[in-house]
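Please complete every field before forwarding. Incomplete forms are returned to the sender.

SECTION A: IDENTIFIERS
Entry label: holo-381
Bound molecule: pyridoxal-5'-phosphate
Molecule representation: SMILES string

SECTION B: INPUTS
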Amino acid sequence: MKGFADRVSTVEEYYFSAKLREVNQMIAEGKPIINLGIGSPDLAPDKLVTEALKNTADNPQAHGYQSYQGIPELRTAISNFYSRAYGVSLDPSKEILPMMGSKEGIMHLSLTFLNPGDEVLVPNPGYPTYTSVCKLVGAKPIYYSIDLEKAGRPNFEEIENQDLSKVKIMWINYPHMPTGAPGSKTLMQELVTFAKKHEIVLLHDNPYSHILTKEPLSILSIPEAKEVALELNSLSKAFNMPGWRVGMLTGREDWISKVLKVKSNMDSGMFLGIQKGAIAALNLGESWFADIESTYQSRRKLVWKLADKLGLTYDEKAAGLFVWCKVPEGKTADQIVDELLYERYIFITPGKIFGSDGNDYVRFSLCMPEFKILEAINRIK
Ligand SMILES: Cc1ncc(COP(=O)(O)O)c(C=O)c1O
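SECTION C: PREDICTED COMPLEX
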């Protein structure tokens, strides 16, 4: 054995992969843990979705390898969804590539666009996978701050003060995780202009567009965005299907075909039942979104109460699946996270795992039923 690849030492095990071992150990010891840490929707998908999966599983013909680009019916359902939800027109045969979730897509996109030594603009705070995948492919993350008073606007002035000649891609994510900064059409237009000016590929990671937002937004709805942007989207949060592993990449044909070139060497098409379930989900009507909206609104009100009790502050206009809270003067986020976990058995996420701008914050997930959040409130004296 002559050692592991150098890249292994560039990353840590994913925070939740390690932390949930500890939390699960506490549960095994009988501690009544309330998990407000991870953003994994706890509710079931629609019945039509699970029925589509079950019906497919019973078909003996359904278990073979599937097309690398997904079945045409799935790509059509994605195209119709983009048209209804965002007013974006996509050619199902060329501008859509189904994926096993957007996390997987981050790796495929990075392998497609980046050489060792290239630079990548990454939001701080931001989804940790942007950084770790960037490092795994030998590229260098360049962090940019976002302004929470301005819908999550990157500090373009600060970014442009740096040498951007080696920057190839920029990760953006609105509604932004973990802060809930909603983004806006105006901001996306600014991003497209910025990307064109600096010849940077904009990669918009868009899994939260339907969670507690005023209007679902796609970067591809911005004029000329297709020239410079690709978009990842996912059924994990919007349709309660995180364990199914199904999402999509959308955008210009010539870039999508390069991603397919890479991806088709790494995996095969998704199980047909998952594709059929995804089609059923994407075809759901407005009432599905109205239901999840009201569920998360009620839960969020309770989480705000919990935060109030802990002396934390938050933005009521934020979107997405989390409540992002600033810790009060005189306390650290680690103290709050540890006190809650070890004394009240409430698991929440420290903001520092999303980047240095998250140091004074903690994140609560809305993926717990109301009675559990009420119980958490009652545990705070
Ligand atoms: C910003 C962001 N992008 C991507 C993902 C991954 O989603 P998926 O389940 O589609 O891989 C998450 C999941 O938490 C996320 O918060």
